[in-house]
Amino acid sequence: MKQNSTPFDVAEYDRQIKKTLPFYEEMFQQIVDIVKILNLQSLRWLDVGCGTGKMARTALDIFEIEKMMCIDVEEEMLDKARMFCNDEKVEFLQCDVRKLSYQEMFDIVTAIQVNHYFKKEERMTAIKKCYSTLKDDGIYISFENFAPDSDEGTRLYLERWKRFQIANGKTEEEVASHIKRYGQSYFPISISESIRLLKDCGFRMVEILWVSYMQVGILARK
Prior knowledge:
Blueprint: H1 7-20, H2 24-38, E1 43-48, H3 54-62, E2 65-72, H4 75-84, E3 90-94, E4 106-112, H5 120-133, E5 134-145, H6 151-167, H7 172-180, H8 191-200, E6 205-212, E7 215-221
Parallel strand pairs: 1-2, 1-4, 2-3, 4-5
Antiparallel strand pairs: 5-7, 6-7
Helix pairs in contact: 6-7
């Protein structure tokens, strides 16, 4: 196992993400805004696919957190998150979201850039697991890549995303490799399909929270 997981590594990792995802920081701000409006106290929060722990660190710095559960399938990511979120309120678990066993435990579940890695049935399983972990009236917020509704729209949006990445310092080869993964390594669905899927999983309220380039934020309530 690598021993170089440090706050510097976390910052560098996030800098690299910003070269790929437009308005990456804005995703976290959107979540903060919603949670502030809800004015929830003593939050129990599950962050799925926690990565370097950016969501957990943001929440700990702003809100009254009773318990923050961070899960990720990659131990290396959890190592980074542990360094970034060294707090007794945070628990870390190497786990696939589709195998979660918690029931009605959390006020908030966040899933940032996670669901589009699942094919349709896997995605439904993952979302149902998140739904089961929420208390009544709990909220679920996801940010993920989405698929435009037409082939023409897909070509246009991918070209725009390509130009964003090049403008932010990635090479033509890096961008081409990333764009090639669309529909191969990750499996986005349309915004309307995402909304329908969340409703099919049981959420009583589903709303678009934010859209930019080929990323969408969706808010749902149990």
